[in-house]
Amino acid sequence: MLQNRILFYHTEDWKQELETKTNELKLQHQELLNNNQELLTMNKYLVQTAEKAEEEKKLALERKLKRQQTKKLAKRDYISTDEFYEIMFNHIYRCEDSMYIISRNRIAFFIMYFTGLRVSNLLLFNTRHIQDLMYNKLST
Q1: Which of 45-54, 119-128, 131-140 is modeled with the greatest confidence?
Q2: Could you give the residue ranges of the DSSP H alpha helices within 70-98?
Q3: Can you give 15-28 as a three-state secondary structure string?
Q4: Predicted local distance difference test score (pLDDT) of residue 56
Q5: Which end of the chain offers a freer environment for a tag, N or C, measured as fewer CB atoms within 10 Å?
Q6: 111 and 125 Cβ atoms separated by less than 8 Å
Q7: What's the rounded Cα separation, in Å, for the pair 83 and 105?
């Protein structure tokens, strides 16, 4: 009987030790689960960031290839002085009958040739701009 009591006493101690160890292990397990969850969320964020960066690189490469594939326009040659006078004194008179339209076209050609304006810029021009250029000596 004494022997049973001794064994029973030791088993109670072992039970208490076992319970304390299991509680410690449960706490460690919970900490590991929390750490694992944090690592999983961080991994998910890093994967998304890497995918976004890869997508941006891919788009940049596509834009670069598209830019390289676009056809470049040939350099535009300016008309020579002989061609200018040929247009001014021969072709304008053949195209129109009205002296008003002929003089208007000649003035437009003179302005475009000597100032370097394009047709789109010349369309915004009016007589007030020409008067300012002639009388107030403003630059183009």
Answers
A1: 45-54
A2: 81-86, 92-95
A3: HHHHHHHHHHHHHH
A4: 95
A5: N
A6: yes
A7: 16
3-state DSSP assignment of residue 80: coil
User: Confidence class of residue 140 from pLDDT cuts 50, 70 and 90?
Assistant: very low
Residue 76 CA from chain centroid, whole number:
30
pTM of the model: 0.37
DSSP result, 107-127: HHHHHHHHH---HHHHHT--H
User: Can you say whether residue 117 is alpha, beta or left, with left for phi > 0 and alpha for psi between -120 and 50 degrees?
Assistant: beta
Q: What is the DSSP letter of 44?
A: H
The whole-number pLDDT of residue 136 equals 67
Q: Tokens for 71, please give them.
A: 């056809």
Q: From CA 39, how far away is CA 58, in angstroms rounded?
A: 28
Residue 113 CA to residue 84 CA, distance in Å, equals: 8
Tokens of 17: 């030790």
CB atoms within 10 A of CB 83: 11
CA dihedral angle for residue 35, residue 37, residue 40, residue 41, rounded to 10 degrees: -110
